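A protein record in our archive is deliberately plain, so that people and models can read it alike. The record that follows is passed on verbatim for readers who wish to inspect the format.
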Amino acid sequence: MKKIVVSWCVALAFLSADSAQANKAITNADLIKEIRDLKKIISTQNTEINN
């Protein structure tokens, strides 16, 4: 769970970064994919907890 929180914080930091940074190491598409993957993980964990 701690890893998920850290990943979300990193993703949010990139999203809120200055838009003038043209040479980002990670693209918006990469962030979207990462967020979708995290949502799947969270959904899976919630399902496991509820069962």
About this structure: Residues 2-16+26-50 form one domain. The CA atoms of residues 15 and 28 lie 8 Å apart. The chain is about 75% helix and 0% strand.
